[in-house]
Design goal:
Number of helices: 23
CATH architecture of the largest domain: 3-Layer(aba) Sandwich
Number of strands: 8
Oligomer: single chain
Strand content: 5-15%
EC number: 3.6.5.4
Strand order of the largest sheet: 3-2-4-1-5-6-7-8
Shape: flat
Mean pLDDT: 74
Structural class: alpha/beta
Distance between the termini: 34 Å
Catalytic activity: GTP + H2O = GDP + phosphate + H(+)
Keywords: Cytoplasm, GTP-binding, Hydrolase, Nucleotide-binding, Ribonucleoprotein, RNA-binding, Signal recognition particle
CATH class of the largest domain: Alpha Beta
Low-confidence stretches: 434-468, 479-521
InterPro entries: AAA+_ATPase, P-loop_NTPase, Signal_recog_part_SRP54_M_sf, Signal_recog_particl_SRP54_hlx, Signal_recog_particle_SRP54_M, SRP, SRP54, SRP54_GTPase_dom
Subcellular location: Cell inner membrane; Cytoplasm
Length: 521
């Protein structure tokens, strides 16, 4: 979503970091370009003005001018101001109230409000272990109540039985009473939307709020609508009073201006973001992590969290034991490819690794088809158990049968077998810490002669101005690893190695897309 803005800002700021000293004129010229980049990204004009002025005031101060690396200090200032613009802390849904806790969902029609309601219910039910009741108050849109009932079944929570002819306020009262009698922890109220903000919409939402006294009022806004989303957020906040924002379609090609403007304009935190159509495509919004990714600094914490969520540790440990014995068959390769898919493929991982902007461009330039993983797994699934364990027995007749069974060509099968042999050899080298992630990716996909640009193999240095992980981030990562955090890579605080990225040594987090799994610390 922020790709265009990230490219522009990275280019502007890298020009500053290459200078030995900065003058006020240098900073002013850079801020002019930053201002233009933010406006092109659809950020609100008032937000752009306050942001660039705050950066310029700090950047021309004595601290920067006398710094050993003034350009890097400016990057740090820009990063800090981006975090301040987005909100210094990640907002969470507050359930600290007597049960049943009412959550009122508001927003315009077409913003994804009903689907988001189900996504949040799934999150509260699965992660927070809360009993959730869903209730649709949308009496106008055809089949809106039925849609929420179907989604409730998908996410395995209960929905309020539909009674025809009731008004939104009557349904809201019935939902609260049913939640009290049924022993529910949370009741989520999905209100009706309109194509535009109007008095009827606001009056109905305000009446429902008065009746239910919700602990949270969440505005669902479509990130693709740009500045219209900011106008909508301001209108709802002034008329009803919202406690947080959920941005949908963050996986789309919007320029990111809505996300950057909303927090500054309304003063209300962006609590969650929708990243796809599936019911599990919902993530917490972490301002510091988003700022890091906008400036091309990666997002190690999110990478670790995503790995911890998608990886089957028991299976990974069994695979690790096989590898220690020098075995790596096609079943293991299929498992690794599946885990790579779950984590967003090569492109998804590149966006979270620090200093990987050039590598990501190289991957895109290679026209790598992300569906390749599905085809490769289909090829492996078409083999017999004996063939998967011992691929050396695959001769021409077997290859033709497998290709026909998987709907692929023999050439694709040969490429898969070659990749398997390369990876099997790589496992031995990685075990001794002789190959880096750059060489691993380069070898697998033929990028840059087996290595990454910039001399990254074997240890990744942080881009200029990258802030050290905060104590809160470190604590969060420690929880993922059962209380003890493996050492981090050089430049990430601690001077050690990064978990889960073989070739960077140290204990490895299992299952990062075909790389060696290892024991969880």
């Amino acid at each position: 979503m922020f790709e265009g803005l990230s490219d522009r800002l990275s280019g502007i700021l890298s020009g500053l970091t290459r200078r030995g000293a900065l003058t006020e004129a240098d900073v002013t010229a850079a801020m002019r370009e930053v201002r233009r980049a933010l406006l092109e990204a659809d950020v609100s004009l008032e937000v752009v003005r306050s942001f660039t002025e705050a950066v310029r005031e700090k950047a021309v101060g004595a601290v920067v001018v006398k710094s050993v690396t003034p350009g890097q200090m400016v990057v740090k200032i820009v990063n800090d101001e981006l975090v301040a613009m987005l909100g210094t802390e990640a907002g969470i849904i507050d359930l600290n109230a007597p049960a049943p806790v009412a959550i009122l969902m508001v927003g315009l029609q077409g913003s994804g409000k009903t689907t988001t309601t189900a996504k949040i219910a799934r999150r509260l039910s699965g992660r927070e272990k809360r009993r959730v009741l869903l209730a649709s108050l949308d009496t106008r849109r055809p089949a809106a109540m039925e849609q929420l009932a179907i989604l409730a079944k998908q996410v395995e929570v209960e929905s309020l039985p539909i009674v025809a002819g009731q008004s939104a306020v009557q349904i809201a009262r019935r939902a609260m009473e049913a939640a009290r009698l049924g022993g529910f922890d949370v009741v989520m109220l999905d209100t009706a939307g309109r194509t535009t903000v109007d008095d009827a919409l606001m009056a109905e939402a305000a009446e429902v709020k008065a009746v239910t006294n919700p602990h949270e009022v969440l505005l669902v806004a479509d990130a693709l609508t740009g500045q219209d989303a900011v106008i909508t957020a301001r209108a709802f906040d002034q008329r009803i009073g919202i406690t947080g924002i959920v941005l949908t379609r963050m996986d789309g090609d919007s320029r990111g201006g809505a996300a950057l403007s909303m927090r500054a304009v309304t003063g209300k935190p962006i609590k969650l973001v929708g990243t796809g159509e599936k019911v599990d495509a919902l993530e917490e919004f972490h301002p510091a992590r988003v700022a890091n990714r906008i400036l091309g600094m990666g997002d190690i914490v999110s990478l670790v969290e995503k790995a911890a969520e998608t990886i089957d540790h028991e299976q990974a440990l069994r695979t690790a034991e096989k590898m220690r014995k020098g075995k790596f068959d096609l079943d293991d390769l299929s498992m690794q490819l599946g885990q790579m898919e779950k984590m967003g493929g090569i492109g998804g991982l590149m966006g979270m690794l620090p200093g990987m902007g050039a590598m990501k461009k190289q991957v895109e330039g290679a026209n790598l088809d992300e569906n390749m993983f599905k085809r490769q797994r289909a090829i492996i699934s078409s083999m017999t158990a004996q063939e998967r364990k011992n691929p050396d027995i695959l001769k021409n007749s077997r290859k033709k049968r497998i290709a026909a069974g998987s709907g692929t060509k023999v050439e694709e099968l040969n490429k898969l077998l070659k990749m398997h042999r390369t990876m099997a050899d790589m496992m031995k080298a990685m075990g001794s810490g002789k190959r880096g992630i750059g060489q691993a990716l380069g070898s697998m996909f033929g990028l840059g002669g087996g290595g990454m640009p910039g001399g990254l193999p074997g240890g990744m240095k942080m881009p200029p101005g990258m802030p050290e992980p905060t104590p809160e981030q470190i604590e969060q990562m420690q929880k993922q690893f059962g209380g003890k955090l493996p050492p981090m890579p050089p430049g990430l605080g601690g001077g050690g190695k990064m978990p889960g990225l073989p070739g960077l040594g140290g204990p490895k987090l299992p299952g990062l897309g075909g790389f060696m799994p290892g024991k969880k610390k």
